[in-house]
Amino acid sequence: MIIKYVKLENIRSYTKQTIEFPEGPVLLSGDIGSGKSTILLAIEFALFGIMRSLSGASLLRNGKTKGSVELNFYLDSKDITIKRALKRQGNDVRQDSGFIIIDGKKTEGTAVELKSKILDLLGYPKELVTKTKSLIYRYTVYTPQEEMKQILLDEKDYRLDTLRRVFQIDKYKRIRENAQIVIREIREKTKEFSGMIFNLEEKKKQKKERENELKDVMTKADELKPKINAAESAVKEKKGSKVQLEEDINKLNKLRKKEEVANSRLKEKVMLMHDYKENTEVLDKSIKELNAKIESFKIDIIKENESEVEKSTAKIESEYNYLMQKKVELTEKRKSLQKRKKEFQEEISEKSEESKNLILKKSMLDQLQEELDKKESIKKKINETEDEIKKISLMINEKEVNKEKSEKIKKDILKSDKCPTCSQGLTAEHKKYINDLENKKIKELIEILKKENERKNKLNDNLRNLNTERESLLQKEKTVGILKIEIKGFEQIGKEIVEKQKSLNKLGLEEDRIRKELNSITAKNLDEIKNNISESKDLLKKIRKSNTMLNEKQNLINLRDEKNKNMGEILKSIALLKKDVGEINNLKIELNDEIKKFNDIEEKYKRVKEEFEKAISDETLLAIKRAKLDNEAEGINRAIKELEKEIDEKLEINKKINYLKQMRNWLDNYFIKLMSVMERQIMSGDYHEFNELFKDWFNILMEEESISVRLDDEFTPIIEQNDYETSIEYLSGGERTSLALAYRLALNKVINNIIEGIKTKDLIILDEPTDGFSTDQLDKVKAVFDQLNIKQSIIVSHESKIESFVNNIMRINKNEHISSVVFV
Q1: Cα 441 from Cα 105, distance rounded (Å)
Q2: DSSP letter assigned to residue 61
Q3: I need a labelling partner for 492 at 20 to 30 A (CA). Which of 229, 511, 550, 781 fits?
Q4: Across residues 805-812, what is the average pLDDT?
Q5: pLDDT tens for residues 283-303?
Q6: How far apart are CA 25 and CA 785, in angstroms?
Q7: What domains are there in the chain, each with its CATH number?
């Protein structure tokens, strides 16, 4: 992997900067805090996004809402560009979506998708996608300055865990820990299962006892079988006798039912004959009364037809009502017309008075129009005056700035010993000369400012007068608009007067027409029509009374004929009833003879029924005993099955206990030990390579026979000084940095060798690797760079001597909180 360029926008102290990286050693030089480490953090952010140790808030420039990093690099003959963005939302800074371009093909994606793609390209393990930081990148390519010595100062166990993750053998420790968890769960499960089978032998004993109980119950059930068979035969015999007697009783009941029906019919027929006789007497009396009423009717005959008289009366009445309604309507209409005529006359009079103001309003309008002709001239003067004021204001501002510059030069000259323009030393005479020169300029500027301010004030007074005059014209312009509306209104009133006069003339014509129509109605004799209606109604009453009496007489005749007919039908029914009574009496005699044949049948049935019920009772008692024994046997069988099920389950659990014990023994005594051995073997191979590289790099950096280093079997540096072991805390700053750098370079080499397919072997970034180095140690760094043999190395340092070790130098400057990069 070779970095070509990185673009920063609103990242920490950078606003907008593109930094190109050549191959070979590159030095990022600059003062402390100038923004060197920001470039390295931006590269890491572009590759892996936000991490716990690299938050969005720490990257995005203060006061900015958006920022981005674009990184271009060369990998496996591919040109790759990745861009990530930051966005401020309230008090939080979040990662926005970005994109990756591989050989011109652009793919947009989320932060996680981009990280997954980068890990795939770099050959890093996939499980790093969800990790908060990339340990492999931090220990092979770039370690921040503050973290370089941290791994040496960490606790032994923490350092070992870190190296396990870096070497990708932490899985063996996780396997051992997980195996211990499984062993604990097996132990708990074994205890649980043991508690479930503690009463296994007791259950077997209970099953044996139940089987013996079942055998006794089955013996008792077999002894009951002959008794039950005998009872069933007795019930069958008694049931046959009972059924035969029940058939005879049914016959007897049917005969009694027939006798009862015959008695009921006889009673009904006799009562009906009695009712018919009473009805004949009532009908005879009613017929005689109807004949007397019919003879008593006296009716006057009228020739006129009722329907024709009704039609004639309705016609006359309708004509009368129409004339009366018409008269009322015309009278009301005439009153309404007279009222409207009066209203129109009043409106015409009022509007005639209003229209007299028309001439006066037109005269006022002409006068105002003449005054408004000056409006454009005043507007032009206002614009010219405003332009002149703006020019003067610009001149005043310019002179004020020049005056401030002169005052600043005077102030700076008094404080400084160097000329701000040429950077040469200043003498007292030179300072006095510059001071006098600037005082002269200031005096001239004050004079000019005074004159221009006076001219500006005069123009402002003129502008106020012109604006006042313009405001007056605007008010008059509004008055002109109002006058035009009023004149238009008066002209409209004149038109309305003409229209009202026309409407008034039409109303007069309409009133004349209504008056004539009322006179024609009055000419007709309405009282005579009213008398004709009264006479027609009297005649109609007489006709209706005569017709009513005729209808009533005919109804009485019809009713008498109907009663005579009913009398004949009743007499026929009485004759038929007498015949039915004789037949019913004969049937009763026959039924009585049949009933006598079954005199003692009910006593016999009662006796046989009691014998049958006793046989049933005996049979039921035996059946209950048998059912009780069967239920008891069934309950015992169920208990035996439940016990068998429990015993089988406990036997299965016992098998599981044996299996779990074997599994626990295998995990505890074989598997966990095997994982430890495998981890030690792998770590041992890594250890030897790591230890040799660590010693070599340290010897190059120090070249002192009095101090030597090596690693113990837990990768902890052992330092010997003058044949005595010493602690890191007692080393000098340069010695401690040499130790950390040697550890870091050795770790870089080991990781690159262990992880196959890693694509960052051609790149290393060293952040302040010489912190605390003496001059002699700085000379040794050149030898380190030569032996690294890496295509691209980026070194961050503020040591000027490092510049002689590299061909490419980038100078980072910071001015007013903004960093910039200059190639030297």
Answers
A1: 64
A2: P
A3: 511
A4: 88
A5: 888 888 878 877 777 766 667
A6: 8
A7: 2-150+764-823 (3.40.50.300), 337-523 (1.10.287.510)
